[in-house]
Structures are given as structure tokens and as C-alpha cells.
Amino acid sequence: MFIRFTSEDVSAQNQVKASVQRRIRQSIAEEYPGLEPVLEDLLPKKSPLVVVKCQNHLNLVVVNNVPLFFNIRDGPYMPTLRLLHQYPNIMKKFQVDRGAIKFVFSGANIMCPGLTSPGGVLDEEVEIERPVAIMAEGKQHALAIGFTKMSAKNIKAINKGIGVDNLHYLNDGLWKMETLD
Amino acid sequence: MAEKPEAVKVLYCGVCGLPAEYCEFGPEFEKCKPWLIQYAPDVYPDLLKDSDGKEVDKVSDQMQSTSISAGGSSTSKPEEVKRLPGGKVKKKDKKEVIIEKVVRNKRKCITTVKGLELFAVKLSDASKKLGKKFATGASVVKGPTEKEQIDVQGDIAYDIVEFITDTWPDVPESSIFFIEDGKKVPAA
Ligand SMILES: [Zn+2]
């Protein structure tokens, strides 16, 4: 999704009203309760919060020019990988086997067998259409952020096809956009 | 309210910007290698094995004895210094100032200065002086190896050597090095 994302894909950039800012903050707090204690540091009530609308219905939540969260249409907010790296325990995690890493790096979606093989790990509680951190066999830090196309149980049971959509991965356009001018 | 989670510090590669453990999947692993050997030897232990281990140890031993004597005389041996990027760098024991230009997204760049504290220079003081001299932002931050370093905004690598030797005469020019394209180059 973010493969060729550049600042040219930005279609509108707006500082949002206080009410919208509050709503965004609240839905992030609900989605990631582990982040609540640092939310005031990340999204200070007094700093302007900017929502950048991009192509493909992608919205970025930006504070002080740093993209911190994104969502698609009205979907759940997800942290950028740089933010997730700092607070790795805020999301549920899947792990792909080592063989899948290079495909994820090329932007491919995550196929079930990469999660069910001996190098893969599934969190069985994860339902369909949920944000999930994609970890990798033998690696400490997250490789990608995905959105499940099947529940973890079905990924295990069906074990073929796309299990998780790859929304944001290391070295994609959003990763490279450390700050937004 | 739950306890404040501590932000994890991730070691990002100084060359490709990925977490160091993912350099091997990045576009320029070869270019990352010298940086990784210096800053992330634990992540890729095989890289150290690749370069001849014995040879490397010998070089770093020589380096240590050289830098001890370099304190008084200015007869350092740059040809040995140049060989270091291929091998293990024992930073802890060496008295050196390392200057590196780091490019942050396209045009922005910062110049990092490491090692001044080894010459009894107070980093907070040095940071202030650098900021003033180059009319820019400068701050003391924890570097990737958990050691403190000074980050100065902008590309000041060109003028900084003279400023350091003028301001802190205890720092000999022969102990100042640049990192250029992942290689360590003497400033003198
Ligand atoms: Zn790298």
C-alpha cells in the first residue's frame, strides 16, 4: 500500500478541530490501552494535530511533522513502525518465518504458510480485520504492520492464501518519510 | 493509570536506516557492513569472523599502544588507522574524536561528534559552544552504542576540526577522525 508513497501523494493536509483531535486520541487510547500513559507525550493536547489525507483513502496522523499513526477510511488507527519499535507491546503480534521476510520487504501480503510453519507464530486471539504487528523469526523488532484477512484460527485451519494484508513495512514509503515537511 | 512504558531504543543502521538486524534484507547490505562491524558487532557475529580474526586483533592492539603514545607526540600512524574499518574496533580504550555526517531524509543532515569526553571535555559545555559557533542547534544525545555524543544540526564537518583543536588544545588533530562512506579517515 505504501510502496511508492511520497509527499506527492498527499492530497490534503489539515490541522484538525479540537473535537476531532479528541476523538482520534480517544480511539487510539481504546485500541492501544498500553499506550495511554504516554499518549500525552505523543499527542500533546496543546500541540496541533494534523491529519494528512493521502491516496487510497489513507490518513496519517502527524504531530510536529512526524507521522505517528495511520488508518484507512474510518478503520482502526495503527502506529507507524517507528513508533511501534518504541512501544512494541501495544499490538498483538504474529511472526513470519525467516523465508517470508524478503517477500514482506518487497511489499507482498503475508501468506498463511509463512505464519504456520515452524518459524511462524500466531496469536490465537486475533480475529479477522484486526491490526497486527508482524514480527520475524530470529528478529527482535517488527517488520511490518498488517491487517488480518482471516482470524488466527482460520489462518491455521485453512493455511493457504493471504492471511494478513501488508499495510506498512520496513523501507516502504511511509518508513522513509521520517518527517513530513 | 498504568505505569509509563519505557520507549525501546532501537539500533538503526547508520547507512540504510533499517533496524541493524534487518540490514541483511536491505538494499545495500555490503555498504552497511563497515558500519555494522563497528556499531553492531553482536548482531552479525559472522561479519567479524569473515575478516581474519587474528589479523584484526593485532591491529587493534597496535592501535591502543599507538594512541597511548599519541597523547604526547603527534606521530600517529594513519596507515594503520585506515585498516581498522575492516576489523573489530575497541572504542572504549581509545582516545579519539569521531566526526560523522548523518543525512536525515533528503537534505537535512546532522554532524555527530563522539569521544570528546575522553579528553576531559564536558559534553554539555561543548554542545553549547558548537551550537554558538555554528549558529545552529546542538545537543548531547545517547548514541547508538549508548554512549553520549553531540549532535549538531547541519553539515559542519568541514570546519569543525579547527574549532575543536582551537577550543580544546588537549585534543590533538591526530586523534580526530571522520567517518566517510563507512570508513574511518584521519582528519589530519
Ligand atoms: Zn544497514
From TrEMBL, chain A:
Keywords per UniProt: Cytoplasm
Cross-referenced SUPFAM superfamilies: PUA domain-like
Protein name (database record): PUA domain-containing protein
GO CC annotation terms, alphabetical: cytoplasm
Gene name for this UniProt entry: LOC110775878
MF GO annotations: RNA binding
Compartment list: Cytoplasm
PROSITE patterns noted in UniProt: PUA
TrEMBL record, chain B:
Annotated InterPro entries: DENR/SUI1_TIF (IPR050318), DENR_C (IPR046447), DENR_eukaryotes (IPR005873), DENR_N (IPR048517), SUI1 (IPR001950), SUI1_dom_sf (IPR036877)
GO molecular function terms attached to this record: mRNA binding; translation initiation factor activity
GO biological process terms, semicolon-separated: formation of translation preinitiation complex; translation reinitiation
Subcellular localization(s) per the UniProt record: Cytoplasm
Gene Ontology cellular component annotations, sorted alphabetically: cytoplasm; ribonucleoprotein complex; ribosome
Keywords carried by this UniProt record: Cytoplasm, Ribonucleoprotein, Ribosomal protein
Keyword check for Chloroplast: no
Signal peptide: none
Coiled-coil ranges per UniProt: none
Listed CDD domains: DENR_C (cd11607)
SUPFAM superfamilies hit by this protein: eIF1-like
Main localization (coarse): cytoplasm
Chain residue ranges for the region called Disordered: 55-88
Residue ranges with Low complexity bias: 65-76
Family under the similarity heading: Belongs to the DENR family.
Free-text comment about domains: The SUI1 domain may be involved in RNA binding.
Subunit structure comment from the entry: Interacts with the 40S ribosomal subunit.
Name this polypeptide is given: Translation machinery-associated protein 22
Species, as recorded: Spinacia oleracea
